[in-house]
Amino acid sequence: MGTRQLYACDFEVFGKVQRVFFRKYTANKAKDLGLHGWCKNTSAGTVKGQMEGTQQELNEMKYFLQYKGSPKSRIDGVNFSDMIPTNTYTLKSFEIRQTSEFQLCCTETLNDLLVKRHFSGGRDNTQHTQSS
After folding, report:
1. Nearest 5 degrees, angle CA 51-CA 90-CA 35?
2. Within a domain: 84
3. Rounded to whole angstroms, how far apart are CA atoms 109 and 101?
4. Residues recognised as catalytic
5. What is the rounded distance in angstroms from the CA atom of residue 108 to the CA atom of residue 95?
6. pLDDT at 124 over 70
7. DSSP letter assigned to residue 128
8. 81 belongs to a structural domain
9. Which of 12, 20, 59, 114 has its CA 20 to 30 A from that of 1?
């Protein structure tokens, strides 16, 4: 029996892909295809990951990431790295990696500040009071 040629490929998915179970659906599809790898939310509001498998398995997963996703997601675009030949899997399965709470908290706070600044015409509308 011949050995299967394995490849590795990185991806990043843009759009409404957080808080819509995108990572869960991605992990389930990857496991169904027999892929190894990981995915995680980023502070930029995207989902990044890496997948390892045969060329056919990776192509099926690419289609899923571009056109399917989770039912409540909206996929605006996907970036894929080139498929790199590899001899072995680097992970035992496909996993969802956690983004640190600190990273998400800082991102949400920064996004809130940017939105407030945008709607105030770029002015700092912070109320300053002087104590007597």
Report:
1. 35
2. yes
3. 12
4. 23, 41
5. 25
6. no
7. -
8. yes
9. 59
